[in-house]
Amino acid sequence: MTNEATKSARKSAPKPADRRAGARAPASSKPKPASNRAERAAERRGAIIAAAMDEFIARGFAATRLDDIAKRAGVAKGTIYLHFKDKESMFEELIRTAIVPLVTRLWATPPQPGASVRDMVEGFAKTFIEEVATTRRGDLVRLIVAEGPRFPEVADFYYREVVSRGLAGMRALIELGIARGEIQHKNLAQFPQIMVAPALIAVIWQSLFSRHAPLDALEMFRVHLDLIFGERRTA
Amino acid sequence: MTNEATKSARKSAPKPADRRAGARAPASSKPKPASNRAERAAERRGAIIAAAMDEFIARGFAATRLDDIAKRAGVAKGTIYLHFKDKESMFEELIRTAIVPLVTRLWATPPQPGASVRDMVEGFAKTFIEEVATTRRGDLVRLIVAEGPRFPEVADFYYREVVSRGLAGMRALIELGIARGEIQHKNLAQFPQIMVAPALIAVIWQSLFSRHAPLDALEMFRVHLDLIFGERRTA
DNA sequence: ATTAAATGACTGACTAGTCAGTCATTGTCA
DNA sequence: TGACAATGACTGACTAGTCAGTCATTTAAT
């Protein structure tokens, strides 16, 4: 076997010294030393999730190496397997745990009773563009689009938790707008996707083409809203 | 335990060799019409491209195996390397050669002089939805969205050849519509993306969610056009 | 016969997942 | 309180593959 040669060559300086106490004391960048065992474990789990997130977004599922995730998380590879069954279920769980706060954040818009439907939708879009489209969360959406077909469970989850609910909410808003006379196009309630379409365009544009041509996503969305609600007073 | 997606895919063993070649040879019941050297080579190259297309779409770049492409193309693995430098440049060239006819096909709309701008856009959308969104070409678009960030050259090419030209053409059409009085919203010319947005939504929906909820993309697009051009006479 | 095209067994670099061992923390008893 | 045992989180070398790319050999067109 060539293992012997490879083995020794692979890692020449393991530097076993600063494992536990060593790693804890000098790492004052962490606000929490956390000498409690369970706390530290949870902290590590969080570090793994964050690292995995970055790696998966940057490389996609198949091209991501667990060694890299471990390195980025500051953890040994074996530790990953204390928290996740395997690479695939780590990916799925990752998406799930990332989606929930994203959706929560998005639906946490203060439902001002006096506001017009247009203002509500615009506020929503503003939040989405600022908090999702122009941040790493947007890459998460792109990641789901990219890997969805190969991870039906992820696509299902995303449909149930985000798409289905989001469209239902948007439909309700559209119907409110129609009832109030703000929206003339009654057929729009059949396709809430139309309301959301420019937001998704913004996400994709951001990842792929913003280098070539920056896109003012919010202004684009406002023009889109003009189509639906009619021209603004203040242009 | 290995990756489930990879594994299940691995099972589907393509049968005898001339799967693709047979499909390519147009007007003959003969499996092997070409005895000319250059012709056969070109045929093989085409088979490799078609097979690679299918595999890359189904699995993404990193998870696709050259062995599978070779098997599907009815060719030995070494043959691939007679036509392409390596996996990566094969992918890039593949996208390039697939995009060109796709764009050509799309811009080959007969520019009827008497038609309204709305009819032109609608005809365009109809072609797009029938020929791209609901076919394998749509998956190609999704593939570019998925792999674009990891293949800047592909993203660049796509921007130059498709996005940039497409938006310019669409902008011209919008300006024509404004000049003719068909379109009231002058700001729309700033964001031709809005015009196209539902078409992209349709492509993504098709790949990810059509199992859960089918989407009548053409009707959606018509409703979208109602927003831009005003309500249709015949609802 | 000559030579380009095609083949597929082979190589070696790479990686998901394992597991025997380590050691900081926690629990227990005197 | 101090000593010692039990725990289990953590480690990383290791195994068992996988797969891109090569090349000596075979096939077949000219």
TrEMBL record, chains A, B:
<dbReference type="GO" id="GO:0003700">
    <property type="term" value="F:DNA-binding transcription factor activity"/>
</dbReference>
<keyword id="KW-0238">DNA-binding</keyword>
<feature type="DNA-binding region" description="H-T-H motif">
    <location>
        <begin position="65"/>
        <end position="84"/>
    </location>
</feature>
<dbReference type="InterPro" id="IPR001647">
    <property type="entry name" value="HTH_TetR"/>
</dbReference>
<protein>
    <submittedName>
        <fullName>Transcriptional regulator</fullName>
    </submittedName>
</protein>
<feature type="compositionally biased region" description="Low complexity">
    <location>
        <begin position="23"/>
        <end position="36"/>
    </location>
</feature>
<dbReference type="InterPro" id="IPR011075">
    <property type="entry name" value="TetR_C"/>
</dbReference>
<dbReference type="InterPro" id="IPR009057">
    <property type="entry name" value="Homeodomain-like_sf"/>
</dbReference>
<feature type="domain" description="HTH tetR-type">
    <location>
        <begin position="42"/>
        <end position="102"/>
    </location>
</feature>
<dbReference type="Pfam" id="PF16859">
    <property type="entry name" value="TetR_C_11"/>
</dbReference>
<feature type="region of interest" description="Disordered">
    <location>
        <begin position="1"/>
        <end position="41"/>
    </location>
</feature>
<keyword id="KW-0805">Transcription regulation</keyword>
<dbReference type="Pfam" id="PF00440">
    <property type="entry name" value="TetR_N"/>
</dbReference>
<dbReference type="InterPro" id="IPR050109">
    <property type="entry name" value="HTH-type_TetR-like_transc_reg"/>
</dbReference>
<dbReference type="GO" id="GO:0000976">
    <property type="term" value="F:transcription cis-regulatory region binding"/>
</dbReference>
<keyword id="KW-0804">Transcription</keyword>
<dbReference type="InterPro" id="IPR036271">
    <property type="entry name" value="Tet_transcr_reg_TetR-rel_C_sf"/>
</dbReference>
